[in-house]
Design brief:
The chain is of the alpha+beta class. It folds into two domains: about 5-45, no CATH class; about 50-205, Rieske [2Fe-2S] iron-sulphur domain (Rieske Iron-sulfur Protein). Helix content is about 20%, strand content about 20%. It has four helices and twelve strands. The strands form four sheets. A four-stranded antiparallel sheet has the order 7-8-9-10, with no helix packed on it. Strands 3-12-11 form a three-stranded antiparallel sheet, with no helix packed on it. Strands 4-5-6 form a three-stranded antiparallel sheet, with no helix packed on it. A hairpin with a 6-residue loop joins strand 8 and strand 9. It is globular and about 35 Å long.
Length: about 210
């Protein structure tokens, strides 16, 4: 058992002034190194804002041709983005066609409030849809040009034969829900999938059927 004496601990050498200075200098140097390295450590731990930005997938619309579809991946689900043609938009509004729609007024919560319209989008020219059949969960096939009686084109499910128009509205087969519309916004010719429109709290989990 060591005993404490005025000069230190009995059985242990008392610290000298030189060793004390060395220890203090080393401690100060370590603190300095941590302070200098902190910006690099901090970059490896992005704040909540940067992490949230990773939830947004964007697409430049400038090079998207009429009737062309681009498939993106967002939160592990396929998202269809289509530049609809004037012919598609006209056919989508034909009374005889609208009468065939399962949910023509988008009453079921399959889309944000700003997409609860006949074209189910922010801009009628662009469709943004979650590409999962609401009847069987298969990925529907895109039909850019259709023939009578499906003049609007749209989607057909290869598994259950359910059909959807270019707005993702179900009109044939076993599907009783429209294709979901994910939360998104359009800024400067770019579609930002996952970006919340001010005042709208719609999330992927808000969809009634997916």
């Amino acid at each position: 058992m060591n005993l404490v004496t005025p000069t230190g601990v009995l059985g242990s050498p008392a610290p000298t002034r030189r060793s004390f200075l060395y220890t203090t200098t080393a401690a100060v140097g370590t603190v300095g190194l941590i302070a200098a390295a902190w910006p690099f450590i901090d970059q490896m731990n992005p704040d909540a804002g940067l992490r949230a930005a990773g939830d947004i997938v964007d697409l430049n619309l400038i090079n998207l041709r009429p009737a062309q579809q681009v498939v993106l991946r967002w939160h592990h689900v396929p998202v269809f983005v289509v530049r609809r043609t004037a012919g598609m938009l006209r056919a989508m509004q034909e009374r005889t066609f609208v009468d065939r729609l399962v949910d023509p007024h988008s009453e079921r919560r399959q889309q944000p409030a700003y997409a609860r319209n006949w074209h189910r989008s922010i801009d009628p020219a662009y469709a943004v849809l979650v590409g999962i059949c609401t009847a069987c969960a298969c990925v529907p096939l895109y039909v850019a040009e259709a023939s009578p009686p499906d003049l609007a084109g749209g989607y057909v499910c290869p598994c259950c034969a359910s059909r959807y128009d270019p707005a993702g509205r179900a009109y044939s087969g076993s599907a009783q829900y429209n294709l979901p519309v994910p939360p998104y916004d359009i800024e400067h010719s770019r579609i930002l999938i996952g970006k919340k429109v001010p005042g709208e709290m719609f999330r992927l989990e808000s969809i009634e059927r997916i």
